[in-house]
Amino acid sequence: MPIVAPSFLAADFLHLDKACEMVNQSEAEWFHLDVMDGRFVPNISFGIPVISAIRKTTTKVCDVHLMIEEPEKYAEAFKAAGADVLTVHAEACKHLHRNLQQIKDLGMKAGIALNPQTPISMIDEVLAGADLVCIMTVNPGFGGQKFIHSMLKKVESLKESIIKKGTNTLIEIDGGVTLDNAADLVRAGADVLVAGNTVFAANDPMAVIAALKAIR
Ligand code: DX5
Ligand code: ZN
Fold first, then answer.
1. Given 48, 92, 135, 208, which residue has the most CB atoms within 10 angstroms?
2. Burial tier of 11 (Cβ tally within 10 Å: 0-12, 13-18, 19+)
C-alpha cells in the first residue's frame, strides 16, 4: 500500500484551510508542497510563510519539494516552517552530498528529485545518503500535466538499484499520477504517490485518496 501525498498546488488557494481539513481526515499520510522560484522552473508558486500557515493546521507529514536554485540557502527556513521531508533537485545542486547532509543535520528526511531527462546513474554515488528519491513523471513547474509513460522503466531500475544497495530509500512519484497508472507505478516500485489534480479536481477527494491507498 503506497503512501499518498496530495499536492496542494492543485488545491483552492482561497480555501487552504478546507484542503488541510480534508487531508487531515483522509487516509493520506503525507501532504506535498511544491515550491517554485521562476528560475529552476518556469513558474512561481508559494513559499515559506504559506507553508508555515498550512503546517499549523495539518497533522500529517509535511513533504516539501523544492524546485529552486541554491536550495541550501533555505533549508533552515523550511525546517523552521515545519518541513519533515525536504527534497532538492539533483540538477539544482552542485554539491548534492553536502546538501543532503545539511538537510539531515537539520533533522529532516532528505530527498533527491530527478527531472525526466536525468538518469538515475547521476545519483548512484549518493543514493545511500538519500531517504527518498522523487522521480518526476512530468517536467516540473506545473500541475495537471500528462504522465510520461517511459518513466515507468526508470522507476523499475531505481528500485533494482535500491534493492542491490540495501538502502531504505523511498521512491516517490510526482506528476500526472492517476487512478489508471497508480497500480503500474506501485508494481514498478513506487512507495509514495504524489497526486495533485487527481485528488483536488475530484468530486470526492477523500474517496480518491482511499482508492490510491488501497492499491497493492
Ligand atoms: C509539478 C509538481 C507536482 C504537481 C503534481 O512540478 O512537482 O507536485 O503538483 O500535480 P499533478 O498531480 O496534477 O500532476
Ligand atoms: Zn512536486
1. 135
2. buried
Q: Is the pTM of this model over 0.70?
A: yes
5 C-alpha vs ligand 2 centroid, how far in Å? 10
- Distance (angstroms) between ligand 2 centre and the Cα of 151 equals 16
CA 152 to chain CA mean position, Å: 16
Average pLDDT for residues 149-177, to the nearest whole number?
Answer: 98
Length of the chain in terms of residues written = 216
Closest by CA to 90, choosing from 67, 62, 58, is 67
The amino acid at 184: D
Mean pLDDT score across all residues of the chain: 98
Going by C-alpha positions, the residue among 133, 84, 134, 135 that lies closest to residue 108 is: 84
H-run or E-run covering 209: helix 205-213
- Range 104-111 average pLDDT: 98
Other CB atoms within 10 A of residue 176 CB = 22
